[in-house]
Automatic annotation (TrEMBL), chains A, B:
The lineage of its organism: Bacteria, Bacillati, Actinomycetota, Actinomycetes, Glycomycetales. Pfam families: Rrf2. NCBIfam families: rrf2_super. One of its GO terms (cellular component) is cytosol. This is BadM/Rrf2 family transcriptional regulator. GO terms for molecular function: DNA-binding transcription factor activity. It comes from the Bacteria. Gene3D superfamilies: Winged helix-like DNA-binding domain superfamily/Winged helix DNA-binding domain.
DNA sequence: GGAAGTTTACTCGGATAGGTCATGTCCGAGTTGCATTGG
DNA sequence: CCAATGCAACTCGGACATGACCTATCCGAGTAAACTTCC
C-alpha cells in the first residue's frame, strides 16, 4: 500500500493557498515554490478543482484559490481528491471460489474479514476528516504565513 | 492506494488454517481450496512464516499451521506480513525544497501534515490490531469449520 | 480619447513514454517421511 | 524382524515475464486580461 507522492504536493499546495487568502496563484508559481514538475503538478491541481477543493480561473493573473473556507476543507477531502475514495482492500469473494466454495446462501452477509477491513478504513477516514486546513495552518508561527504571502503574491 | 490482492488470500488462508487445529495443510491444498495460483500463493505463505504467523514444515505430510493460538494473531499481523509495516504516506519534506524552502531551524519538529497522516495510519493499525483470528472465526456458524475440516484434512 | 481587434498569459485536456511494483510462472535446492531392500 | 538405503512429496528461494499504475513530458485548444491600433 502506498499513497502517491503527489498527495504531499496537493496537501502542501492547499495549505500554501490557505496562507494567501483572496490571491490567485498559478501552477508555475506553486511548482517553483516547492520545486515540482509543473506539468504533472497541473494534473493534480485539476483533480483538486474537480473535487471542489480549489477553484481555477483562466487567463492572465489567473490561477488557483481555495473554493471554500479553510475550516470547511478537511484533509480527507484532499486525500480522496488525489487518491480516490475507494477502500484499499477489495474483497473479491474468494470464499465463493474453488473446492471450498461456500454456497450463495451462506454468503448473503458480508464476509467478516471484509467488514474488519472496512472498519479500519473508516477509522482512517474519520481521523483524516477530523483535521481541517484551518487546523493545519493554525499551529504555525505567524512568520510563516507572512513569508508565504510575500513569496506567492504577484504585485 | 491499494492493498495487494494476495492479502485477501493470506487472510482467508489463515482463517482456514485456524479451522483445522493441529493439522498441517499444504500450499497446493490451500490453492485448490480457494482456486488460487499455487506458485504465487506459496510466496505469500512464506511471508506469513517469516512474520511468525504460520510455521511451515517440509517433507511429505508437511505444510503450514498456525504458529500461535488464534487469539494471539491479530489481523494487523497478517496485513503487515503481506504489505509491510510502513506508513503509506511518505513525507519527503518538500517544505525544505524550492523557492519557498523553509530554513532547517524551522523544521526541527515534524511537519503538521505528516503528523496528521501518521495519526490516521495509527488509527487504522489500532482498528486492525483489535481484531484477532479467533474473533474472525468466532462468529461463524458451527457448520462452516466442520466443513472446512472435512475438506482440508488428509486422511 | 474610446472602441475594436490583436497579442499575451494562463488553464485545461489528451496523447505518450518510462519506472516501479504487484502478479504470475518456472525451476532447482534442500528437507523429511515413506517404501524398499538387504542382513 | 530390523536397519540402511533409495524414492517421493513437499517447502523454500531465486530468476524471469507480464501488466497496471504512478510519474513525467509535450502539445494543442480554449479563455480572459492587457495591449495595440484605428477612427
Amino acid at each position: 500500500m502506498k499513497l502517491p507522492e503527489s498527495l504531499e504536493w496537493a496537501l502542501h499546495c492547499t495549505t500554501a493557498l490557505a496562507q494567501v487568502p483572496g490571491e490567485t496563484v498559478s501552477t508555475a508559481q506553486l511548482a517553483e515554490h516547492f520545486d515540482l514538475p509543473t506539468a504533472y503538478l497541473s494534473k493534480q491541481l485539476a483533480l483538486l478543482v474537480r473535487a471542489g477543493v480549489l477553484s481555477g480561473t483562466t487567463g492572465p493573473r489567473g490561477g488557483f484559490r481555495l473554493a471554500r473556507p479553510t475550516s470547511e476543507i478537511t484533509v480527507l477531502d484532499i486525500v480522496e481528491a488525489i487518491d480516490g475514495a475507494g477502500n484499499p482492500y477489495l474483497c473479491r469473494e474468494i470464499r465463493q471460489q474453488g473446492r471450498g466454495a461456500l454456497p450463495a446462501s451462506q454468503c448473503r452477509e458480508r464476509c467478516t474479514i471484509a467488514t474488519t477491513m472496512d472498519r479500519a478504513h473508516q477509522a482512517w477516514r474519520d481521523s483524516l476528516r477530523s483535521m481541517t486546513v484551518a487546523d493545519l495552518i493554525g499551529d504555525l508561527p505567524a512568520s510563516i504565513p507572512e513569508r508565504t504571502r510575500r513569496l506567492l503574491s504577484r504585485g
